[in-house]
TrEMBL record:
Matches recorded under SMART domains: CBS (SM00116)
Entry keyword set: CBS domain, Chloride, Ion transport, Membrane, Repeat, Transmembrane, Transmembrane helix, Transport
Gene3D superfamilies per UniProt: 3.10.580.20, CBS-domain (3.10.580.10), Clc chloride channel (1.10.3080.10)
Keyword match Transport: yes
Record's protein name: Chloride channel protein
Amino acid sequence: SFQSLDYDVCENKLFQDELRRRHSDRFSLRTHVIRWIIFVLIGIITALIACSIDIVIEELSEIKYKFLKYSVDHNVPMNGNDGDLALPFLWWILLSVIPVAIGAAMVTYIEPITAGSGIPQVKSYLNGVKVPRIVRIKTLAVKSIGVITSVVGGLAGGKEGPMIHAGAVVAAGISQGKSTTFVKDFRIFKAFRDDHEKRDFVLGGAAAGVSAAFGAPIGGMLFSLEEAASFWNQNLIWRTLIASIISSFTLNIVLSAYHGLNDFTFTGLFNLGKFEQPLSFEYFELPLFMMLGVSGGLLGAAWNALNMRINKFRKRFVPWKCGKVCEAILVAILGVTLACTMIYFINDCRPLGNDPTIHPVQLFCEDNEYNAVAALWFQTPEATVRALFHDPPGSHKILTLAMFTLVYYFLSCATFGLNVSLGVFIPTALVGAAWGRLVAMLLFYLFPETQFLHPGKYALIGAAANLGGVLRMTISLSVILMETTGIETSFFFPLIIALISAKWVGDYFNDGIYDSVIEVNNVPMLPWEPLPQYKGLTAKEIMSNSVVSIKLRDNVHYIFEVLKRCSHNGFPVVDDVNNDLRSSGRVCGFILRSQLIVILQKALFAENKRFWESDTTIQTFRDVYPRYPSIESVRPLDRKLNYTVDLSIFMNPSPVRVNAHDSVPRIFNIFRALGLRHMLVISNENRIEGIITRRDFIYK
C-alpha cells in the first residue's frame, strides 16, 4: 500500500532548458530569498496553530476541572451533609467520554492517518515513503480538533507530538502555493513543486512544530536531524533553525500576551517552569544517575514491548471502526475510574499554600488542607509534570507516587495506539518524573541526613531516563529538557549520562517506540545501514527481473497498454532494439509512470509536435503535482493509437545505473544517499538486467 517518493530530480531536457532560460544571478537570488521567506512563514503559521490549540485546551480544561472541584466539594458526605460522591464520578466520566468520543469518531471516520502522534508517519515521509494523506489540510484540521478533544478528555497523552505533524502539514501546504483539497492554485512558488524541494520544507515544518511545542528552537532543529531527517545539508540546517526560532518567538509573543506577561517569558506549550535554585550535583551521584538511566531503559523497553503487543492485538481483534471508537471511550472510563479509586482510598492530605495546585480539592481532609492525590489528577498531564518538578519536598506520600507511577505506566501504554490524536512524550515524561521523585523520597527516607536529594532534580533525571528508554533520543532530548527547564549547562552531563544509559539498555531489547510503530505498520523504511543478511550479496541477487522497457520512440498503443496492465511506477527507456525485443535494448534513460500519463493526457505526440512544442515546459508536469492522474483518466485514443511518442525530451537521460556484480552494501549507500526510487541494473554492454527499489533492500 506504500509507494516511494521521487527525491531524485529528473534532469530531462525540459528541466535543462528551464535552467538555461532562467540562469541569472537575479533569478537565483529571488529563488533563494523566496525559500527563506517560506521557512519564516512556516514558523509563524505553525506557532499560531499551536497557540490556538493550547488556548482552547487550557480554557476547556479550566472549565472542566473547576466544575469537578465544585462537584466534589458539594458532594462530600461530611458534617451531616448527605452528599454522594458517585455524582462527581459520573460527571467526570461524562466530561471525559464526550470529547474523547468526538475526537475518536473524527479520526476513525474522517481521517484515520491522524491517529497517534504523527511522528512515525513524518519520519517515514522524510525517509522517502509516500504515506497517503499525510500532509493534507483536512488532516491538519482533524489532527488539531482531535488533539484538543483527547487532552481535554483526560487521556494519558499530550499535544506536543501532534504539533510536529501539524508543522509538517503547514510546510507542505505553504511551499506548494496551491491547495489540492480546495482545488485552488495561487500560482506562486511553482519552482518548488517536486518531492525533493517539498521534503526540505517538511523537515523545517517538523522542526518548527518541536520548537512551538517545547519552546526549544535548537532542540527542534536537532530533533529533526536526529530523529526525522534522512537527508540534510548545511544550508538546510540554517533554514531549519530559522523556522524553529521564528516559531518559538511567535508563540512566545502570543501566549505571553494571552497570559498577561509583559516580559515575554512564556516559552512553549510544554512549559515546565524554571527551577528557583540552580540544579547542582555531587560527583558521587553520577553512578546513581547512571542507575536511573539503566532503570529507565528497562522500563522503556518493557513499555515498548507491551505497547506493541497491545497494538497487534488491536489490529487483529478490533478491525471495526465502531469498535475503535468504543475502545477509546472504554480507556477514558478506565482512566477516570482508576483516578477516582486512588483519590478515594489513599489518604494523603497536605496543608494549603505549600503547593501551587490550581484546583485544590479538600475531600476528606481537614480545613486548610487539600488532597494531594486529587492534585495529581485534577489538571492536564503537562501541569502534573511541572508540579512534580517544582513541588516542595514532602508534597506527596511515598504510597501516592508509587501507585500513581504504576497506574499511569499501564494507562499510558494502553492509550498510545488508540484511534485518537495524541503524543507519547508527555505521559512518558510524567511517569519518569513520578518514579524519579519517588526514588529521591525513598533515599531520603533511608538516609534522612543527606542534603543533595532535591526531589525536583531526581524528577528531571527520571523523566529524561524514561524518555530515553521509550523514545531512544539523546542529543535533541537533552537540549529540549535544558531549554524547557532553563537548567544550567553544568547539569547537561548528568542528563546525558541518564539518557545514554537508558538508550543503550533499551536498544539491547528492542527499538524505540517510533521505529516500532513503523515496523508494525510494515512501512518500507530504509535503515542507515543495510541489514546484516544483505552483506556479501550482489545486485543480481536482490534485483527484480520483471522489468518493462519502452523504446526511445515508441507506439502510443503499446505505452497505453503497458500502463493499463502493470502498476510499475518507472520504465527504462532503450534504443538499439533488435526485432522489437525491448528487453535487449541499450539503456538510454528512464521515464516515470506519472510523466507518461501526462504525455498521453495532453497528446504530446511526435506527429503533432509543432502544436505543443513551444508551450510545453517542465511546468506542464509540475502543475499536476502532487496528485498525478491515473491511467483511467486518459480519454480514449482510438484515432491516435498509431501515433508515436518521442521520449528524448521527457526522460531522465542520466538515471543511476549499477553493474549486476556490484555489492549490495555499496549500492545501498548510493541508493539511500541520493534518495532514489529506482536503480537500474545493467550488464557490461549497458543492457537492462533488472531494477532495484527500496523493497528489494528490505523484503528479500
